[in-house]
Amino acid sequence: MEQTPRGVGRGRISGAFMVAGLIAAAGLLVYLGRADTIHALSYAGRLLGGFLVLAGLVAFTAAVCVVVDRFLGHGTKYTTAIILFGVLAVLGAGLMLLAIQLEEYTRWLWGWLGLIVWSGWALWELLHRRRAWRDITFRRNFAAIASVTALITVANFVYTQIYTPYASPLTVTLSTEIGHIRKEKNTTYVGVTFRLENTGKVAANIVGASYAVSGVNWNSTYQTPRNVKQWDEEVDTDGLTDLHTYADKPEPYTVSLGLLSAPFDSDLGPGQKYTQEKIIELPTNAYRAIWVQGEAYLLRKDRMLQSNPPAIYHSRMGKGEKAPEWVANYAHLPSDSAYIRYTVPVTYSNEILNLTRKRRNVTLWWMLGTENTSSLAPLVASLEPVGEERAEPSYSEWGQVLERYGFTYLASGATEAVL
Hints:
- The chain crosses the membrane at residues 12-32, 44-68, 80-102, 108-127, 139-159.
- Keywords: Membrane, Transmembrane, Transmembrane helix.
- There is one protein chain.
- The strands form 3 sheets. Strands 3, 4, 5, 7, 13 and 14 form a 6-stranded antiparallel sheet that branches. Strands 8, 9, 10, 11 and 12 form a 5-stranded antiparallel sheet that branches. The chain has a 3-stranded antiparallel sheet with strand order 1-2-6, with no helix packed on it.
- The protein is an alpha+beta fold.
- It has 2 domains: 6-167; 172-418, no CATH class.
- It has 10 helices and 14 strands.
- β1 and β2 (187-198) form a beta hairpin.
- The longest helix has 34 residues, at 6-39.
C-alpha cells in the first residue's frame, strides 16, 4: 500500500486549517459589515461596514484559492498572491477590531485575538514554511497594492472612529421666555415659552426635558447697606447664593413644574425647533417676582438609538425604593424624595460597537421632592452598563460618556420677571 509522504499530509492539514480560518473570518467580517452597511446610523459607519464586507469577500476568495492550490494542485502565482492578500486582510481587520475593543472589555475580545493569532500563524506558514513570497513574480506591484489598501483602511478607520465624532458637534440650545403678565383681583396669569432649537447638523433624541417655575419672595428691603456678617448667614454650602446689599436673600418656592415632552418620545432634527407655551396661575400679591428655567438631556441619534419603550417606575406605587443617594444629592433633595424613573435600553450606532461595548441603559430620574421641599432642577440622568444604573458615575466616566456617545445636558438658566 502506497504511503502518503509526511510533507504532503502535513501540507494538507495546514491547508485545511487555513481554509477553515479564512472561511470563519470571512463569515464574521461579512456579517459585521453587512449589518453596518444596511443599519449603521451614520455614513461613516456604513463606509466602515463596506470595508469589512470587502475584507470578508477577499478572505473567502483566498479560501477558494487554498483549495485550488493545496488540494487540486492547480496553484499559480496569482492564487498565492490572493491567499497572502486574504490573510493580510484578516490580520488588518483583527487589529482594527482589537483597537476598538481596547476601550472596554467584552467577550468578543477573544474573537479578535483569535483572528490575529490565526493570521500570525498563517503568515508564518506562507512566508516561512512555503516561501510563498518567492512564488509571486510581481512582488513590487503586490506590495504597492497592499500598502495602498492598508493606507485607505487606516484613513477610513481614523475618519470614522476619531475625526467624525469631533467634526460634527451636537449644537442644541434651550431657552425660556416670560411673556405677558396679566393681573386680576385674585389671580395673576404669566405666559411662559420654552424653546429647544437644533442649530447644527446632527439629529438629537430628547431623553427628557422639564421646566420649573418658582415664585420668589424676600422679607425686607433695607435703606442702609447690610454688613458682611449678615451676608455670611445667608451663604449656602453650594456657593451659588446671590447676596444683596439692600435686601434679604430671595426665597424661591416652586409653583409649577413638569415635563416638556414625554421621555424618549421626541426627536429634534437639524434646523428643527420644539416650542411649548404655558400659562402659569398665581395668587395675586403672593410673590414679588417669578423665576423660570428649563433643562434637558439629549442623545446624538448618530451615536445611539433606543431599542425598546421605556420601563417606568413610580416611587409611590412601588415598594418604596428610594432613589440612589447620588441622584438625590445632585438634585439637592432629601433621599426620601418622590420620583418617577424611566429606563430605556439603547443600542450603539453600528454592529461593531454593539459587540465591542457593554450593553447600556439610559436612566432618567424625575425628582418630585417631598411635602416640605421643592426642586428647581428635577431631572437627573445617566448612561450606564446594564445592572449598574444606580451606581454614581465618576467625573472621568461622565466625560467619556459625553465624548463617545454625545450624551448631553442642557440648562436654560433662570429667567426672572417682577410681578
